[in-house]
Amino acid sequence: METRAVLDTNVILAAQISESPDSPNREIVGRWRAGEFALLVSEDIVAEYIEKLQFLGKSPGEIVRFIS
Fold first, then answer.
1. Phi–psi pair at 17, nearest 5 degrees
2. Phi-psi category of residue 35: left, alpha or beta, with phi > 0 → left and psi -120 to 50 → alpha
3. How far from chain centre, in Å, is Cα 21?
4. Which residues are paired to 38 by β-bridges?
5. What is the dihedral angle through the alpha carbons of 56, 59, 61, 63, rounded to the nearest 10 degrees?
6. Which pLDDT score is estimated for 46?
7. What pLDDT is attached to residue 19?
8. Distance, CA of 23 to chain centre
9. What's residue 32's pLDDT?
10. Degrees (nearest 5) of the Cα angle 53, 63, 33?
11. β-strands 4-5, 38-39: how paired?
12. pLDDT of residue 6
């Protein structure tokens, strides 16, 4: 059975702003990107990710790449 997870918005934000390569938040996002687990999201969660990334000043291109 495939591992699935819902990542809290704060984990995503912390991963985006952390400069530390040892950040646990960056590690979990990296593991998702590496295909170690399936990320479960709803439309509401995606909207919150977008809102928070915009608040952090991420460009539309950065946001689209992340959400994709």
1. -100, -15
2. left
3. 16
4. 4
5. 10
6. 92
7. 87
8. 13
9. 92
10. 100
11. parallel
12. 94
Q: What value does the CA radius of gyration of the chain take, rounded to a whole number of Å?
A: 12
pLDDT for 2-47, tens place per residue? 999 999 989 988 988 888 989 999 999 999 999 999 999 999 999 9
What is the 3-state composition of the chain as percent helix, strand, coil, each rounded to the nearest 5?
A: 60, 5, 35
Inter-CA distances, 29 with 8, 12, 49, Å: 11, 7, 13
> Identity (one letter) of the amino acid at 48?
E
In angstroms, the Cα distances linking 3 to 13, 29, 31, 38, 67 are: 22, 14, 12, 6, 20
The answer to whether 65 and 50 are in contact (CB under 8 A) is no
pTM over 0.85: no
How far is residue 46's CA from residue 42's CA, in Å, rounded to a whole number? Answer: 6
AA letter at 26: R
